[in-house]
Automatic annotation (TrEMBL):
This is 3-alpha-hydroxysteroid dehydrogenase. Belongs to the short-chain dehydrogenases/reductases (SDR) family. It comes from the Bacteria. Signal peptide: none annotated. NCBIfam families: PRK07231.1. It holds the Pfam family adh_short_C2. PANTHER family: DEHYDROGENASES, SHORT CHAIN (PTHR24321), ESTRADIOL 17-BETA-DEHYDROGENASE 8-RELATED (PTHR24321:SF8). Keywords: Oxidoreductase.
Length: 246
């Protein structure tokens, strides 16, 4: 038996990278998955590969109407939603003195407003299901600041706080809400050896390597599954030890 047998999941930002790894593992563990992204070609190719247990939909997570369509698709094809993984996000290196209001707001709209809309959109469906698990993918930058990432850090700190508020508000419906905080992970954004070495040196990673997407997926699986049935409003860090000394 899989850890997610009989579960219906929505995973955002899942056409490649960490999100793709989440989709693959969730399907292996028995879930029916609706996954979304703005990368249509990659998303459709992944859906074709994985078959009948998944559906792909193009999705702007900062748009409430798009969220309604994602939930409607999940319910019409697979049934009420049990799991939401708010994985989609963007980053931006720009100092406070250099960033424009438009640049700042774009990051906030995607990283902060997007997950808020997602939690709001799935709540009625999870109520119908009788329980649920929401996993918000934050970052170690949702626990500490980093030079040059004011918009990203602001959005991830907000997501950490929203998670704790939602955990309290949703508990009466037997819906758990937790956040996962990755450090540097080997995704399409950092693939060259020079980039990887720069992350290791710049962030002082005690384990002396970046993480693999599949390692994050295993933690997300645990948090999403009934194995974490007494965890809500919690922060799950997976960073190779970066924050251990902070």
């Amino acid at each position: 038996m899989g850890k997610l047998d009989g579960k219906v999941a929505i995973i955002t930002g899942a056409a490649r990278g960490q999100g793709e790894a989440h989709v693959r593992l969730f399907v292996e563990e028995g879930a029916k998955v609706v996954f979304s992204d703005i990368l249509v070609n990659e998303g459709e190719a992944l859906a074709k590969e994985l078959g009948d247990n998944v559906r792909f939909i193009k999705h702007d997570i900062s748009n409430a109407d798009d969220w309604s369509q994602v939930v409607e698709l999940a319910e019409s094809v697979f049934g009420p939603v049990n799991i939401l993984v708010n994985n989609a996000g963007v980053d931006l290196f720009r100092k406070i003195e250099d960033i424009t209001v438009e640049e700042y707001n774009r990051v906030i709209r995607i990283n902060q407003v997007g997950p808020f809309l997602g939690m709001k959109a799935v709540l009625p469906s999870m109520k119908k299901a009788g329980s649920g698990s929401i996993v918000n993918i934050s970052s170690i930058n949702g626990l500490r600041g980093e030079y040059g990432f004011v918009a990203y850090d602001s959005s991830k700190f907000a997501l950490t706080g929203m998670t704790k508020t939602a955990a309290q508000e949703f508990a009466e419906y037997n819906i758990r809400v937790n956040s996962v905080h990755p450090g540097p992970i080997k995704t399409p954004m950092i693939e060259s050896q020079d980039e990887i070495s720069g992350f290791i040196d710049g962030l002082s990673v005690p384990l002396n390597r970046v993480g693999e997407p599949e390692e994050v997926s295993k933690l997300v699986l645990f948090v999403a599954s009934d194995d974490a049935s007494y965890s809500t409003g919690s922060e799950f860090v997976i960073d190779g030890g970066i924050t251990a000394s902070n």
